[in-house]
Design brief:
With 140 residues, the protein is of the alpha/beta class. It contains 5 helices and 8 strands, in the order E-H-E-E-E-H-E-E-H-E-H-E-H. The chain has one domain: 3-Layer(aba) Sandwich (Rossmann fold). Belongs to the guanylate kinase family.
């Protein structure tokens, strides 16, 4: 791994709580931040484009990358694989960029073990009713 010059900022929280909105606001305001595009084996949702929201891989391709230890971190979430490629983390650090992205809490804790200096940010919902409304609106 290259000498680290940036840091990692991880935003976690329940689905629909606004993690993407927070990440997007930071990226818009701070040019020294870059979004870490993670890989997944799940199917794209409407409007998601490969290499913009996720790198969509077949399960076979994902498992091959696991076999060759190409991931900095990976997890199985809701029967799908998710992970970040080491080369993407190294590239951002070589460009003096801070990385920001959202993942689940389990993945965030794994990153904390690998990159102890990383910053973990947990976002909670204001109320269950508001979260329910946001999820229903998103899934339309």
């Amino acid at each position: 791994m290259n000498k680290q010059t940036g840091n990692i900022f991880i935003v976690s929280g329940p689905s629909g709580v606004g993690k993407d909105s927070i990440v997007n606001a930071v990226l818009k305001k701070h040019s020294n931040f870059s979004r870490l595009i993670t890989c997944t084996s799940r199917q794209p949702r409407d409007g998601e484009k490969s290499k913009r929201t996720y790198k969509f891989l077949s399960e076979e391709d994902f498992l091959e990358k696991i076999k060759f230890k190409q991931f900095a971190e990976w997890q199985i979430v809701h029967n799908n694989y998710y992970g970040a490629l080491k080369e993407d983390v190294d590239l951002a650090f070589s460009q003096n960029k801070n990385l920001i992205f959202d993942i689940d809490v389990k993945g965030a804790l794994t990153y904390k073990k690998i990159y102890p200096q990383c910053v973990l940010i947990f976002i909670k919902y204001e109320s269950l009713e508001l979260l329910k409304q946001r999820l229903q609106k998103r899934d339309r």
